[in-house]
Amino acid sequence: MPSQKVNTDSSGRVILLLSDCWSNIRDGIAGINKSLAQSLAMYKGIRLYSAVFTEASKLSQAAIKEASESNVILFSLASNGTSSQELYKSFNADPCAYLSDLKERIPNVHQIVGHVPVTGRACLAIRDQLYPQAKVVLFFHIVPQEISWLGDNIPFDMLSESELVNLGEQADFVYSITEKLHWFNTAKFRNRAKQSVDHHLFLPQCSKEVFSITREKQTGKTPTILVMADGRAVDPWLGLDIAACAVNK
Question: Considering its fold, how many domains does the chain have in total?
Fold first, then answer.
C-alpha cells in the first residue's frame, strides 16, 4: 500500500499511472512518465496519481517538488528494504496487496496507465479487481529480442511475444513508443492476436529545454544540426530529454 498519505480528492477525471520511477536520468521510461503525467495534469478537471517503486524516503526533494508543481500526486509503493527487482515481481504478481486501501481513498479511477513489460499485468489486475469500469492504457517499450542479451540485469520478467500480444488484447488502448516499435507490434497484433487491438503510435515530445534552444543567425545557407550522441556529448542532456535517455541506454 502507499507508504505515505495520499491526497485523494477524486472529483473530476482520475488517472492512475503505474510507473517504476519518476526522475531517473538513466531510464527512458521515466522520461515518458514525466512527459505524459505533466501533459495530462495540465488539463482542467484531471487528477493524476503516479505510483513509483522508489521508497518514499529515497525520493529526491527535486522530484517531489517537480511533481507537485506539475499537479501530479506522487506516492511510493515500496516498503523499507524492498529491492526494486523484488518489487517488480511481487507487484505484478499481486498488485492489489500493495493497493488494498486505495479503493477507499480513491473511489473512482477512470484510466489506468502502465508500461509493458514493467507494470502491464498489474494494470489489468487492478482494473479487474478494484476498478472494473476503468479503461486500461498500455505503453509498449521494447522488442524482446533486442534486450535479451541483458539477461539477469533486467529487473523485470521478460515476457514472450505471445504474452505481449495477450496483454495488448486485454487492454483498451495500446501505444507503441517510436515508429520502429509500432511497426513491430502492428505485425505481431495482425498475425497473432485473436481479438482486435486498438493500437496507436506514440512519439515522445522533446523537453522544453530542447525546444528552447535558439538558433543563432547564420550567414549563407549553412544548416544548423543538433546531434544527439552517446558519451560525454550527451551527458548534459540526461534526464532532460527522452532522446538523450534512450541514447544512453
Answer: 2
What would the 3-class secondary structure string for the chain be?
CCCCCCCCCCCCEEEEEECCCCCCCCCHHHHHHHHHHHHHHCCCCEEEEEEECCCHHHCCHHHHHHHHHCCEEEEECCCCCCCHHHHHHHHHHCHHHHCCCHHHHCCCCCEEEEEECCCHHHHHHHHHHCCCCCEEEEEECCCHHHHHHHHHHCCCCCCCHHHHHHHHHHCCEEEEECHHHHHHHHHHHHHHCCCCCCEEEECCCCCHHHHCCCCCCCCCCCCCCCCCCCCHHHHHHCCCCHHHHHHHC
Which structural domain range is residue 229 located in? 206-249
**Structural domain contains residue 217:** yes
The whole-number average pLDDT for the span 206-234 is 55
**What is the reported pTM?**
0.75
Give the pLDDT score at 80.
64
For residues 129 and 218, state if they share a domain.
Answer: no
Identify whether residues 95 and 188 lie together within a single domain: yes
Residue 1 lies in a domain: no
Lowest mean pLDDT among 31-35, 37-41, 88-92, 225-229: 225-229
